[in-house]
Amino acid sequence: MDVEQAYSIDHPNLNLHMNISVKLVPHSSNGAILYARGGQNVLVLRMEMRRIVAELNSKTLYSPRTVALGKNLTIGLLWSGNMVSLRVAGSARVLRVGIDDTPVSELWIGRPGKLSLKSLVSELVINGQAIAGKKLTLFSSMRSLYGGVVELNKGEYAQLLDFHQMPQEKLRVGMDVKPASEEGVLFFWRLSDGLNEGQSSSPTFIGLFLREARLHLVWNVGSGGLRSIRSLTALTRGSWNDVQFELSSSEASISVNGSAVSSHFPAAIDPLPITGESVYIGGVPDDSNLPSPLGNLSRAFAGAVKRLTVNETPFRMQKVE
């Protein structure tokens, strides 16, 4: 089945400690593959920047290597007692967790209300039983969370609706972009100008810019000062491009159509001190000047944007007239 939304799975007599095998062809770099809840305990099997992740409450288990998009992939997850084993393409990782076994109250392919991995799932087996289509129920409201395609001419921009983002350890942003130009603002979040007493004003922001068809992630958050990273792969004009970026206290990365680049640096922010300020897509308001370090970057983007997510949560965009 094609998965871009979420499907509820009938789960009679299942407990959270399961033996799961899934075969799929991934077509995006981020998103949930499987979600299970038992009482207060949660299991999420997902892709993060082309690495498979098993998340068990606050504990995470990562695959040792990234996986290729558009190719067959087999994932195995065995949770037995206090040990969890994640096997991806023949390589295994093991994690010890102290989470009690509990009856499953929710079981999904994908994850409702969050970003589900774009993929073709050919087989899902839980505790030796194949999950057939008749056991699946489509979560039909997922598409309405994204809204439609937002077309932007130079000088126009969009704003995120219902955006309330709390501080956390990592920021993950994803969107599909079809550029008609090679320059401009794709994502801009001016967070705060307030600093401790006695310090000079230094705008705090996170921005993703297109320059000569390549992505530049530029940020000034916490005490680390101004930093930036550039994608190795150029965006293709007139075509849809899968764009992802991540920012944490010690690492930043950009992915374009599955090709990723990352940078590590001494931790200066933990967690990211970001809250629900306005987020702009494709430009900024006329009365909102870009911080001076960004003066040489063009603000005017032309093209289209769709499927925007922040930390795997879809957000609707509204074009500002």
TrEMBL record:
Transmembrane segments: none annotated. SMART domains: LamG. Residues 147-321 form the Laminin G domain. It comes from the Eukaryota. InterPro entries: ConA-like_dom_sf, Laminin_G. Pfam families: Laminin_G_2 (PF02210). This is LAM_G_DOMAIN domain-containing protein.
